[in-house]
Amino acid sequence: MSTPHAILIALLEKPSSGYDLARRFDRAIGYFWQATHQQIYRELGRMVAAGWVSVMDDAAASRKKVYAVLPVGRDEVARWVRETPLGPNERNVFLLKLRADAVIGPLGLAEQLARLVRENRARLAVYREIEQRDFGAAVLSRGQALQYAILKAGIRTQESWLAWAAEVGPLVSDASPDA
Amino acid sequence: MSTPHAILIALLEKPSSGYDLARRFDRAIGYFWQATHQQIYRELGRMVAAGWVSVMDDAAASRKKVYAVLPVGRDEVARWVRETPLGPNERNVFLLKLRADAVIGPLGLAEQLARLVRENRARLAVYREIEQRDFGAAVLSRGQALQYAILKAGIRTQESWLAWAAEVGPLVSDASPDA
DNA sequence: AGGCGCATGTAATGGGTTACATGATTGA
DNA sequence: TCAATCATGTAACCCATTACATGCGCCT
């Protein structure tokens, strides 16, 4: 999932301490992208060394260090979003890139989305074939019914994601809306 | 995800060689549960040592080793399905357990499914609150629209999974259908 | 005075990923 | 005979997970 970039993006949204980051990753953020506080502290250390983020002692809470993304780190996020190809099945990574796109201007995600859509459509077609071939019978045994249920989980997931993708498409389209 | 148990269950469905297992994990199976051939060979070695599976040279293809699950391994699968609690967000692990349930009799998954349903309903409620609180405005900026899209991905996922769970419920219910 | 939550870290383990390696079979 | 696929493995690295550790501040 690329923990460092997930952290960078979270810091772009709001500069935070390691502790606060850990809490954010425990809450809403953590449903898609997970990181423990140990990973967070380790990556923060590395990223400070790399010059991607800065550290400052919090004025209010004495023993708190607030991390913020430096321009170099911002560029690194943009580079990662643009250049790192998405594996199949990496929808949550795409969501992470969307988050980056929401914070720092448009990054041209249309092509990557289109690719995901193509792959997921293809997978859905495969599932549909299996469905017709293996589960066409009127009566299924318990085992078959369960295997069918597993397949249906896949089918539903694909369909629901594709419907979502159709909605987001316009938001990441490179062409201006009314050109 | 527990690679060893994923392999055991795949072997229960069909005794295979390491190579064939790797191919199965590359295809349909691998959409939910992934394992490279190196992991597979390592785990097969361990499980043979543990007495969970047996090895036999394939009669047809000379240099092929066919692995099959022994009774002890079968019991281990049943134990794992029953006793290992599901973390939140481990829906694919539940699917893996369903596959085990499909191969070796009913294993009493109703309770675990009910728990997942409760958790996912709660999460959906949280998302709905965020939706109303943060995205009620008529006009959203580009960034807000994208953040909303990310939230909607979560909402859709929850809804679609809950609909699926409602369908599977009867299949794993412990009570007999018409008692 | 003691316990709990805050806040930051270190250390060790185990598993996943990648690269490397070998030999046998099949088809062009 | 050359390349590609089959089939099995070893080795090294990196990362995630778990456990351990420390000290401050607040509340009772």
Structure in words:
The structure is a homodimer of 179-residue chains. Chain A is mainly alpha-helical and 179 residues long. The first copy, chain A, folds into two domains: 89 residues, Winged helix-like DNA-binding domain superfamily/Winged helix DNA-binding domain (Arc Repressor Mutant, subunit A), CATH 1.10.10.10; 63 residues. The first copy, chain A, is built from seven helices and two strands, in the order αααββαααα. In chain A, α1 crosses α4 and α6 runs antiparallel to α7. Chains A and B meet through α5, α6 and α7 of A and α5, α6 and α7 of B. The first copy, chain A, binds a DNA duplex (28 and 28 nucleotides) through α2 and α3.
Runs of chain A in which pLDDT lies below 50 for 5 or more consecutive residues are none
CATH topology of the largest domain in chain A: Arc Repressor Mutant, subunit A
CATH architecture of the largest domain in chain A: Orthogonal Bundle
Instruction: Provide the helix percentage of chain A.
Output: 55-70%
Radius of gyration of chain A: 21 Å
Total domain count of chain A: 2
β-strand amount of chain A: 5-15%
CATH superfamily of the largest domain in chain A: Winged helix-like DNA-binding domain superfamily/Winged helix DNA-binding domain
The largest sheet of chain A is: 2 strands, antiparallel
Largest interface: A-B, 37 and 37 residues
Shape of chain A: elongated
Q: What is the typical, i.e. mean, pLDDT of chain A?
A: 92
Which structural category do the helix and sheet elements of chain A fall into?
A: mainly alpha
What's the order of the H and E elements of chain A? HHHEEHHHH
